[in-house]
Amino acid sequence: MADLADQPIPTITLILPTIGRPSLARALHSLRVQEWIPGDEVLLVGDGSQPAARSLWEQFSLPGRYLEVPGPSNDWGHTPRNLVMPTAAAEYLMALDDDDTLAPTAIATVRAALAEAPGRPHLFRMHGDPCGGIVWCSRVVEIRNVGTPMFVLPTAGRRWASYLPYHGGDHAFIRDTLALWPQEALVWREEVICHVRPRA
Amino acid sequence: MGVVIGSYKWPSLVALQIAAIRHTCGPVPVLVSSDDPDSAASVAAICARQPDVFHWPNHVKIGHTGGDVAAFFKGTLWAAARGLRVVAKLSQRFVVTRARWLQDGAAELLASGLFLASQRCRGSQRFDLRTEAVLLDVEKWNRPEVLSRILPRPYWNDSPHGLSAETIVFRLLQDVGGETFWPWSLIGEERKERRDGVLWHNANAAEEYRRLAASFGLEIDRDFHVYGWQADRSKGLYSYG
Known about the structure:
Number of helices of chain B: 9
Number of strands of chain A: 9
Oligomer: heterodimer
C-alpha cells in the first residue's frame, strides 16, 4: 500500500455561479473557513452583472477570482459552469450553488479522499432541502440522488460533459461525465460535504 | 423592523422622513435621534403627532460624528426593546421613496446572515463604508462588545485628523461584526451619483426635497440646504463632535 504522505497534495478549483442572492454571503462564509492550500482557487462567477457578488468577493479574501459571464442565463448556473470549467487551473474540480454552504471541513475531507484515490471522479454526500435528508441514499446516479455540490472530478484531460439547460441538468452532467470514464472509476464517499439551502 | 433617523437643526426634515417612510413602508415604528437641543422641542412636537414615532434627543449637542454614532446606539437599544429584528439607520437628508425598501432590505440582510447592509464609499469621496443609510441586524448589534464601541459621545478628536462615523462603524464591523457586510442595492458606492428612489444631499438639489415635501403637504425649513457643514463650522456654529 502506498504511503499517502508521499503523494502530491491535490489542488482544487471550486466554481460558484451566482445571481447575487443574499444567501451568497453564507456560501462565501462557509468557504472562508476551509483549509485552502496554494494552487486551490474559488471561481465566483457572476451570471450577468452582479455588483453585490463582486462586492462580497472583494470583502471575503478567498483564493481565486471573481468573473462575470453574459447573462443572466436563468438556468441554475448551468451555463456559467459550462463557460468557466475549461479555465479551472487546479487538479480537481467541484462546484457549489449560491444558496448552499460547504460543511466546515469539506475541502480537507475532499482533499484527503482524493489523496486516497487519485485521478478518479468522486461523489460525496450532501444534506438538506429539497431532499429533506442526506443523499446519496444508494449508489446510483439518478435524479434527486446526486447533485452538483457532491461531485468532484479530475481536470486532467478535461473529461467532462456539459450541463444541460434544464432543471435536473446537474444530474445529467454527472451521468454524462461518468459515461466518459471507466465504469469502476467512480469513488462513492460517505462524508457529507455540503448543506443544500440551509435555513437562515 | 423599524427606522432610526438622525436629526439636526431641521425639524421639517423629520416630518418629511416620517411621511416618506409611512408612504413607502407603512406603519413601521420610527425612532428620531436628535442632536440639537435648540430644535428638540419642535422635533418632539412633530413626533408626538405621529403614531409609533419615538423621540430620543441628546440633551447636550454631541456633534457630527458622535451624533451619527449615537443614532446607531439608540437605534439598537430601541429596536431590541421593541423586539425588532432589523433597524434601518438613516441620516436626515437620506430620504427614500422606493416602495417597501425597508421590508425588502431587511429580508436581504437576514438572508445574508451578515452584521449590516450598506455600501463602500468610492469615487469622489472614499470611505470603507457609507453610514447615511445602514441596515442593522439587531441581534448582532445588541451585544456589550458592540454597544460599548458606539456610546453617545464626541469622537472626532479621538484621532489627530478627525475620526469619522464611517471609520468607527467599519472598525466595529472588522473587529466584532464578522468583517463583511451585505452590499445594499438601495444605495451605490458613489455618493454624488443620483439613484432612483433616493434623495441624498450629495446628489440631489434642495428643490427636489421641497417638491417631495410638497407632495405630502409639507414645507421644508427655509434655511435647508444640501451643502456640507464647513461654513457653519468656520463660524463656530457646528461641531464635528
